[in-house]
Design a protein that fits this description.
This protein has helices at residues 18-22, 34-42, 85-93, 121-137, 179-184, 188-203, 218-234, 243-252, 295-311, 344-369; strands at 6-10, 52-54, 56-61, 64-69, 71-74, 101-104, 117-118, 142-148, 161-171, 207-212, 257-264, 267-276, 280-288, 315-317, 331-341. The longest helix has 26 residues, at 344-369. The protein is globular. β12 and β13 form a beta hairpin. It is built from ten helices and 15 strands. It is an alpha+beta fold and 380 residues long.
C-alpha cells in the first residue's frame, strides 16, 4: 500500500461496482452487501427529509479500493439504536450544533457486523483516521461507528469514545440438533413455559411457512410488508422500508431473506422478516392482524430457532432490546460502537460519561446472565 491513499466521499453507493465493494468483506453478513445497501438508496428507504443522506467514505490506492465504510450524514438520531439524544441536548445547551453528524452504520438495523471494510489492518486504521480527519475538516460535530464487530475495536485510537450496550442472542453450544435438545438444557420452569406457549398457538389452529426470497410470490411479499407497516403505524413511527425494497431483496439476495408467515384458516395473519448470514439469522421486523397468546414468541423466536437448528446456523440475533428474550434462551451479549467528538472539551467531558456507562452495562449484563433459563450442573 502506498504512503498516500486517496479519499473519495460518495453520495451514491452505485458509484462503486458491487464486486469491488463486496471484495472487501467476507460476504457472511448480509447487511454490508452492496445489494442491500444500494437497495435502500434505490428504492426510497433513505431520504434527506428523514435525516438520512448517503455519504460513504472510500480509500483508494491508485485505482484499487482498499477500504470503505457505508456512511450517512444525519440531521437527527432516528433509526440508529445507539442513543445520543443527551449529547445533542448538551450541545444545544451550549449554543452549538450537534447535527449534522456523520454516521457509519447500516440504516435502521441494530445488528453487529463489519463496518470498517478493508483489505488489511493498515487500511482499516487509515479508514478510521480518515473518518475523524474528514469530520473535522468538513465542520461536522462528530463521527460514529455503530454496532461494529468486536474485532474492529483495535482500529480505533484513544481519541474515539467507546460505548457498549446489551442485546439478547441465541447461540447453539454445538450439541443441539433439534428443538427438544435446546429445551432439555433448560430448567423445568422455563422448559414448561415454552412448551405451553407453543401449544397455545398450535391449539388455535395456526400453521407456519418459512420462505426464502426465491420461494415467495407477490402475495407473500405483500403480506410481509403489510405486517411491517402495521407495526410501525401502531407505534406511531414512520415506516422506511418500501414494498419495492422487499421485492428487490427477494430478487437480488433470495437466500439471504427469510419470511416466517403464520396462517389461520388459510390466510396470513402474522409474519416476521429475517435476514440470513453465513452462520447467523437476524430477526428484523414482525407484525400481526390478530392477538393470540404466544403468537409473537412463536413467530419471532421459536420458528427462527427451529430454522437455525435445521440449517446448521449457530447464532440467532432477534433484534434490539427486550429482557423477555432471556427467558426464551437468548442470553445477554455486549454490542459495541465508537464515537469521535470533534470538540476536545466535549470529547473529554463525554469520555468519563462513556466509561461510567460501560461499567454499568457490564454489571447489568453479569446480573442478567445469572438469571438465564439454562440449568446449572445438578439442577433439574
Amino acid at each position: 500500500m502506498s504512503d498516500k491513499l486517496r479519499q473519495r466521499v460518495l453520495d451514491r453507493l452505485d458509484a462503486v461496482p458491487a464486486a469491488i465493494w463486496d471484495a472487501l468483506h467476507g460476504g457472511d453478513n448480509p447487511f454490508v452487501l452492496h445489494a442491500f445497501l444500494d437497495g435502500l438508496e434505490r428504492h426510497g428507504c433513505l431520504r434527506a427529509e428523514w435525516g438520512w443522506t448517503p455519504r460513504h467514505l472510500t480509500l483508494w490506492d491508485g485505482d484499487e479500493l482498499v477500504a470503505a465504510a457505508s456512511g450517512y450524514l444525519k440531521t437527527n438520531s432516528h433509526g440508529e439504536f445507539v442513543f445520543d439524544h443527551a449529547w445533542a441536548r448538551a450541545y444545544a445547551g451550549h449554543g452549538l450544533e450537534y447535527y449534522p453528524k456523520w454516521l457509519f452504520a447500516v440504516p435502521y438495523s441494530p445488528v453487529t457486523g463489519p463496518r470498517l471494510l478493508a483489505r488489511d489492518a493498515a487500511a482499516r486504521r487509515a479508514l478510521v483516521r480518515a473518518m475523524a480527519g474528514r469530520a473535522q475538516a468538513d465542520g461536522l460535530s462528530s463521527a460514529h461507528v455503530n454496532f461494529h464487530s468486536a474485532g474492529e475495536s483495535v482500529a480505533f485510537d484513544g481519541d474515539w469514545l467507546q460505548r457498549t450496550d446489551i442485546q439478547y442472542h441465541w447461540h447453539n453450544p454445538g450439541h443441539w440438533r433439534a428443538f427438544d435438545d435446546y429445551l432439555a438444557d433448560m430448567d423445568h420452569r422455563h422448559r414448561k413455559n415454552i412448551r405451553q406457549e407453543r401449544a397455545k398457538v398450535s391449539r388455535a389452529g395456526v400453521a407456519f411457512r418459512r420462505l426464502h426470497g426465491d420461494e415467495a410470490g407477490p402475495a407473500e411479499l405483500d403480506a410481509i410488508h403489510r405486517f411491517y407497516l402495521q407495526t410501525f403505524l401502531e407505534y406511531g413511527n414512520a415506516p422506511a422500508l418500501t414494498r419495492e425494497f422487499i421485492g428487490y431483496l427477494a430478487r437480488t439476495m433470495p437466500r439471504n431473506i427469510l419470511m416466517i408467515l403464520a396462517y389461520l384458516d388459510g390466510e396470513p395473519v402474522a409474519g416476521a422478516l429475517c435476514l440470513r448470514g453465513g452462520d447467523t439469522l437476524y430477526g428484523r421486523y414482525w407484525g400481526s392482524d390478530v392477538t393470540l397468546p404466544g403468537l409473537h414468541f412463536e413467530t419471532c423466536y421459536y420458528q427462527g430457532i427451529e430454522y437455525c437448528l435445521e440449517q446448521g446456523l449457530t447464532r440467532f440475533e432477534p433484534g434490539a432490546q427486550g429482557e423477555h428474550k432471556l427467558a426464551r434462551g437468548f442470553l445477554p451479549a455486549l454490542v459495541h460502537s465508537h464515537h469521535h467528538v470533534v470538540d476536545p472539551v466535549f470529547r473529554q467531558a463525554l469520555r468519563e460519561w462513556c466509561a461510567q456507562e460501560r461499567d454499568a452495562v457490564a454489571r447489568h449484563a453479569r446480573t442478567l446472565a445469572r438469571h438465564g433459563p439454562f440449568r446449572t450442573p445438578g439442577q433439574d
